[in-house]
Amino acid sequence: MHYKFEFRPYQRKFVRAVVTSHGMWEIREGIILCLTDESGKVGWGEIAPITWFGSETLEQALNFCRQLLPEIREETIFSIPDDLPACQFGFESALQGVRESRSEDFELLISPPPASVTYSGLLPAGETALEAWQRLWQQGYSTFKWKIAVYPTSVELKILESLVQSLPASTKLRLDANGGLNFEEANLWLTTCDKLNANSELPVEIEFIEQPLAVDQFSAMLELSRRYQSAIALDESTATLKQLEYYYNQGWRGIFVIKPGIVGSPSRLCQFCQHHKIDAVFSSVFETIVGRKAALQLATELSQYNRAVGFGINHYFAEDDAVWLENLW
Ligand SMILES: O=C(O)CCC(=O)c1ccccc1C(=O)O
Ligand SMILES: [Mg+2]
Question: Can you give the pTM of this predicted structure?
Fold first, then answer.
């Protein structure tokens, strides 16, 4: 089988810049691609790399796309090298789209997402979180993720105290350090989490701390996971399938955050998750509706422990997705 292949790079400004321990991120750049088979069936895919997270660069993805034009064979899609994980995701999900497609329009893309998943809402770093959760709560979120390791630990721990006091009963809170804590700070956070989680008067659960230490500190994170009750999730450490396999083999049995948009081949991801029954939390890479559709479908199929998915609100970007896509194409 071969397919007509087209692609368009895009740039979209976030409604609000994303602030992490790596700094400010204001514009999402990526590639939308389209495959058409001989009978006219169409599938869409998105390549949305995050280089600071361990995927290829946009430039590498663009170069890969350019040398493929104007046609691509199915074998080529399944032999995209592992150092282009966001490309593996984009092309395989487009291929999947062709298989499910009935027509040439955007119909499938803008259909509503699966209703069976629960979503985690993303709170901004710092004390803005204290107000930000309210709007998300009104929209139906009851799991929140707060970015930490952006301000000094002592400042953030004070905000945490207020946050858990003000959050409604039976909400869950995730803390995402993006690898920005040192060992001592991580111990402080986990001690605090254990204390808060043990307090039966506090109706809020701290679900886990995400990537407390840098990727090269794996044995320290393993040590922390044994030392504390509160759970730890690997995120940056498990950005790609190869890393996922590696840290699983190194004995990690805590939570694995999986970002389908950059982790690599969806079919290999399915095999891995189903074989090892890992405790996975699926999460966005702030992709557009195209990648989001494919990533959420995977998340629904592969979520085993009823964890909320980190696909926040549908409004990362100012412009409406459907309008933007019509204009791009
Ligand atoms: O996981 C979520 O809940 C939201 C997505 C998110 O936080 C994220 C999005 C893009 C890049 C990195 C991250 C992250 O988890 O660190
Ligand atoms: Mg994270």
Answer: 0.94
